[in-house]
Write a structure and sequence with these properties.
single chain, 279 residues, alpha+beta, six-stranded mixed sheet, four-stranded antiparallel sheet, 6 helices, globular, DNA-binding
DNA sequence: AGGATAGCCTGCGGGC
DNA sequence: TGCCCGCAGGCTATCC
């Protein structure tokens, strides 16, 4: 389940394969995972050109959980991987099941977007500016740059549970269920706590915890629980560093209390009832 | 209008 | 062994 660290690892492993490479063809096996937008903000017909056919790739960018492959023409393909999405580069292996879009590159390699659950998708725009204006503008700041000051403004007066706010991509982009629980544990905050009851110093601690948890997970290559692999098909190692996620009923690594598991914000949530105080 | 909820979709593991 | 059910959850649409 790609959250920010996994998508960043895909970006980093993808870039060396793509930069300066020309797209010589595109094969779409499921057109309904793609959406094309023009400069007027209208949804338009899917074409190879809009998926960068014939163009040279000049950049691979990321905001939150979304990737953008940018051509030298300025045209952009934005990929969101949902839960089970994968972007892999390989040397022309036969298509696997659920491989929805394949880009043929002049390097001889192919890039494929695979997504069994189809919670992800592909969006095309004539420029990065339009992607930012039409799609990324809905997102909060990238969670790797999250600050306590921003959290204080974004959560001001909100009565919802802090975990729900962390999962809200308009608050900060990139946090999912795994790293929300890990960050709340590090910050010592009960995930059920209403936002408006969290003091500013605790919000600063939370923002720091979010950045630390995400940064460390990137350094470990992301978390592989089931599906995640980077652009080279390699699994990550960050799951070994999870202190609470997936450990409900086990002992807290800090105080040995039994970790509690319950549904918070419609998500399976694990926390330490001793270390994470309810404010 | 903020916040809670349902639904999308497939693979897998547990239970019988 | 095989089938059925529940669960995983990022995001949007819808309801309250």
């Amino acid at each position: 389940m790609p959250e920010l660290p996994e998508v960043e690892c895909v970006r980093r492993t993808l870039a060396p394969h793509l930069l300066g490479v020309r797209v010589v063809g595109v094969r779409v096996r499921r057109a309904d995972v793609c959406e094309c937008w023009n400069a007027l903000g209208r949804c338009v017909r899917l074409t190879g050109r809009r998926l960068l056919a014939g163009q040279r790739i000049a950049g691979v960018e990321r905001h939150g959980k979304q990737l953008a492959i940018v051509a030298d023409s300025g045209a952009v393909v934005c990929v969101h991987m949902g839960m089970t999405g994968q972007l892999c580069v390989h040397g022309g292996a036969p298509a696997r099941a659920h491989e929805h879009v394949t880009w043929l590159l002049d390097s001889g390699a192919t890039l494929s977007f695979r997504d069994p659950r189809r919670f992800g998708g592909v969006w095309t725009f004539p420029s990065m500016a339009l992607l930012r204006a039409r799609r990324w503008s809905e997102l909060g700041p990238d969670a790797l740059t999250l600050t306590g000051d921003h959290l204080a403004v974004a959560l001001q007066g909100s009565t919802r549970a802090v975990k729900a706010a962390l999962l809200d991509q308009s608050v900060a982009a990139g946090i999912g269920n795994i790293y929300a629980d890990e960050a709340l544990f590090r910050a010592g905050i009960d995930p059920r706590t209403r936002c408006s009851r969290i003091p500013v110093d605790a919000l600063h601690a939370l923002a720091n915890a979010v950045r630390d948890v995400l940064g460390e997970a990137v350094a470990r290559g992301g978390s592989t629980l089931r599906d995640y692999v980077d652009a080279n098909g390699e699994q990550g190692g960050a799951q070994a560093a999870h202190l609470v996620y997936g450990r409900g009923g086990e002992a807290c690594v800090r105080c040995s209390a039994r970790l509690r598991q319950a549904t918070v914000a419609q998500r399976t949530t694990v926390w330490c009832p001793a270390c994470q105080g309810r404010l």
